[in-house]
Specification:
Strand content: 15-25%
Number of domains: 2
Structural class: alpha/beta
CATH topology of the largest domain: Rossmann fold
Order of helices and strands: EHEHEHHEEHEHEHEHEHEHEHEHEHEHH
Length: about 425
């Protein structure tokens, strides 16, 4: 079997690495021998990460300037990608000679622009168009679709999904499935749609939950927190966006102060994503937040572990397993926390976040990013603390059902190849 995973993001985001590693694990368990390739927005970094797995890594056919830092690098790297004709031919040939094309699980088929989609959207779509032109069978592994705020993005996605060579499309939450059902209308086209949990849940291993926590030296209870920069696309105007951003940080700072006070616990900050590009680099928001907390939380109760540029998801899980609760803005920091058996309170900046908790029957432990300024988040955190052992058992029971569900759905989609 020869397969290629298109629209991989970057190992600089540990969540995206988790999705790809889960997909690789699923495929390798079913196909032997397996020749595998993927596309990445940071191919130089990712090549080293995936080389031990025998995976070839290609840059995308089209550049997206936002993944590069600084105006000079944006211009230089964009031009470098555009004129790399040889590597583009190699990627196209890799798609042509593959038995199966997988549209990588995740959340990248969206566009908040009101006029036309941005470069990232076209970067993702051109891979799907190429596979379509080469008449290769395509399966969209579990991912989010939308929001799409312009007609061009909607039309392009509709045309792509209607093609006969698209044999299965998995949405990872109900709102995405409903969007696709409305997009494609009735008829046979809808038969290719299905609902499936996020691929990262396929990394579930009950033995990891049974592993005893190693002493970290962090005063207990320990709360792990991930932040991310968010554009608040629903806000009207720059000033409202800035206000919402300030409220987001202020609410989390208050949460941390009160949690550290309560029982003299500790706060552990970590940067789940370290790129690509400035907007995706969580250090840009976590570093100043760390300095802000240092004024109120004493040394010995506030920690900010240093992580390498590319971090294996299992390393993140080892870190989270030493804590008592995770407050996660980053979706996959929540999933990695859950896979470690740790109760999680998610901050929903997109519908996909709440949907993940719905799969586990824990939707009460998800707070919309616009509701952080009131007491709701603190109340939910208090409920988790009061029911910690009960929530852990609920997580374990729910996770044990998700992996078999993923297996069943994907195996059915791949039955012609098995």
């Amino acid at each position: 079997m020869k397969a290629i995973i298109l629209n991989g993001h970057s190992t600089l985001n540990s969540g995206d690495a988790a999705i790809i590693l889960a997909q690789v694990q699923f495929l390798k368990e079913r196909f032997s021998p397996l020749e595998l390739a993927l596309t990445s927005r940071t191919p130089e970094v990712d090549a080293d990460f995936y080389r031990p797995l025998g995976i070839k890594v290609f840059p995308p056919l089209l550049p997206a300037p936002s993944v590069f830092r600084g105006a000079g690098q944006k211009a230089k790297q964009t031009a470098r990608n555009l004129f790399a004709v040889g590597i583009k031919r190699s990627l196209i040939n890799e798609i042509r000679t593959s038995d199966l094309v997988i549209s990588c699980g995740g959340g990248y088929l969206w566009s908040n622009r009101k006029a036309l989609p941005g470069p990232m959207y076209f970067q993702n779509m051109i891979h799907i168009w190429t596979a379509k032109r080469l008449k290769k069978p395509i399966i969209f592994f579990p991912q989010s679709f939308g929001p799409l705020r312009n007609r061009t993005a909607v039309r392009l996605l509709k045309r792509a999904l209607e093609e006969e060579n698209v044999i299965r499309v998995f949405a990872r939450e109900k709102v995405s499935l409903s969007f696709l059902e409305g997009l494609l209308g009735g008829g046979k086209t809808q038969d290719k749609l299905d609902l499936c949990p996020d691929m990262a849940f396929y990394l579930y291993d009950e033995r990891r939950l049974a592993t005893s926590q190693k002493d970290s030296g962090w005063p207990r209870p320990a709360l792990a927190l991930t932040l991310r920069r968010w554009s608040f696309p629903e806000a009207k105007g720059r000033e409202e966006k800035k206000r919402k951003h300030r409220e987001y940080l202020a609410a989390l700072a208050e949460l941390c102060r009160r949690y550290a006070d309560l029982g003299k616990g500790s706060i552990i900050l970590f940067s789940h994503a370290r790129g690509p590009g400035d907007f995706e680099d969580d250090r840009r928001i976590t570093d100043p937040f760390w300095e802000r907390l240092r004024k109120d939380i004493p040394e010995g109760h506030l920690f900010y572990p240093e992580l390498p540029i590319s971090v294996h998801p299992f390393r993140i899980m080892e870190l989270l397993q030493k804590t008592d609760v995770v407050v996660a803005t980053r979706l996959h920091s929540a999933i990695l926390g859950l896979l470690s058996g740790i109760p999680v309170l998610t901050i929903a900046y997109q519908p996909k976040t709440r949907a993940v908790m719905e799969w586990l029957g824990l939707s009460d432990f998800s707070v919309d990013i616009s509701e952080l300024a009131n007491e709701k988040m603190l109340t939910r955190l208090g409920e988790i603390s009061g029911r910690n052992l009960e929530v852990r058992e609920k997580i374990k029971d729910s996770l044990s059902t998700l992996k078999p569900m993923i297996e069943t759905k994907l195996e059915k989609a791949l039955e012609r190849f098995l």
